[in-house]
Amino acid sequence: MNKITLRISGMRCASCAILIEEDLSDKVKNIFVDYKKGTAEIEFDPDKISLGEIEGIIADLGYEAKAGK
């Protein structure tokens, strides 16, 4: 398992965070998105989904995600 923190720009409310969590919840082991901090803490299996795929899913929702705090 890999654990990462992504910086996510473009979130404006709790609904934004929920949308990201719901879209990724069945693809990753754990996810917690904090719209106030603009971060997502994600635990995932790199054999099932890559960091690039995670960032792509978030981008498809209209947000920008980058690794790092």
Describe the protein in words:
The structure is a single chain. The chain is of the alpha+beta class and 69 residues long. It is built from two helices and four strands, in the order E-H-E-E-H-E. The chain has one domain: Alpha-Beta Plaits (2-Layer Sandwich), CATH 3.30.70. The protein has a four-stranded antiparallel beta sheet, covered by helices on one side. Strand 2 (30-34) and strand 3 form a beta hairpin.
Properties at a glance:
69 residues, globular, 30% helix, 2 helices, alpha+beta, four-stranded antiparallel beta sheet, Alpha-Beta Plaits, 4 strands
Summarize the structure.
The protein has helices at 14-24, 51-60, and strands at 2-9, 30-34, 39-44, 64-67. By secondary structure, the protein is α+β, with helices and mostly antiparallel strands.
* Number of distinct helices: 2
Widest sheet: strand ordering: 2-3-1-4
**What is the percent of helical residues?**
25-40%
Instruction: Summarize model confidence as the mean pLDDT.
Output: 94
Strand-pairing-aware structural class:
alpha+beta
CATH topology: Alpha-Beta Plaits
pLDDT < 50 stretches: none
Sheet having the most strands: 4 strands, antiparallel
